[in-house]
Amino acid sequence: MQTLALYHLKGGVGKTAAAVNLAYLAARDGYPTLFWDLDPQGAGSWYLESAPGQTIDAAKLVKGKLAVGRLVRPTRFENLSLMPADFSLRYLDILLRKVQGQDALKRLLAPFREMFTLVVLDCPPSLSHLAANIFAAADAVAVPIVPSHLSVRAFEIVHQEYKALGHKPRRLHPFFSMVDRRRRLHNALLAETPKRLKRRMDAVIPYASVIEQMGEERAPLGAFAPRHPAAQAYESLWSDLRARMGEFA
Ligand SMILES: Nc1ncnc2c1ncn2[C@@H]1O[C@H](COP(=O)(O)OP(=O)(O)O)[C@@H](O)[C@H]1O
Ligand SMILES: [Mg+2]
């Protein structure tokens, strides 16, 4: 089992859109996949869930008093399961802080080893104890960067923090997100590729209204517009990540 986190300290950069589409593509390729929605706003759950189920008590979850396997729900998509968000997750950071070390989230993932080959973590924006737990749990951290100087700077901070916590920066996988080719700055940043982004993935996610439509369709792009260039961009992102993460077992 491999764990992929869609993470950034910034919000509104396309983490959830990428997480949903990547999880869908992994499942379509036959990998039993779990989408774990760690964001109390629950956007990812909204896209994937057919009917709301049991609520999750984050406090019990962190204390290990919930059998995580029982919280997992099937989705309408073959091979794709969902660990839905719950409003109590807004305390996840405080709850994880009470547990020694940074491996609490990693330990929660252990039982899934038997059930899934890929876990996709859709993370809320943060640079806190929760982020440290996410870094420790994830084999790969994909970071969407909207081309702007501030975004590149924000990635720099993520990079520093990741390294400071003892992780290998080659497990960070930045990629450009919400790219509008009509904007001069977007084109300039893509062309110059700032130093920290030299290792970015080749795939570029365009700014496209079809991605916003996912909220109406309540489905990943591949399920309703598979031939759209934006869907193809997520396909490229998925193949970049597969190549970087190595074989799934
Ligand atoms: N490439 C894109 N093009 C256009 N709209 C997008 C794109 N990616 C995300 N969005 C929209 O922008 C908003 C924020 O995206 P989201 O994936 O939820 O970001 P995050 O999870 O980083 O907060 C959502 O309304 C989503 O539909
Ligand atoms: Mg999100």
Automatic annotation (TrEMBL):
<dbReference type="InterPro" id="IPR050678">
    <property type="entry name" value="DNA_Partitioning_ATPase"/>
</dbReference>
<dbReference type="InterPro" id="IPR027417">
    <property type="entry name" value="P-loop_NTPase"/>
</dbReference>
<protein>
    <submittedName>
        <fullName>Chromosome partitioning protein ParA</fullName>
    </submittedName>
</protein>
<dbReference type="Pfam" id="PF13614">
    <property type="entry name" value="AAA_31"/>
</dbReference>
<dbReference type="InterPro" id="IPR025669">
    <property type="entry name" value="AAA_dom"/>
</dbReference>
<feature type="domain" description="AAA">
    <location>
        <begin position="1"/>
        <end position="156"/>
    </location>
</feature>
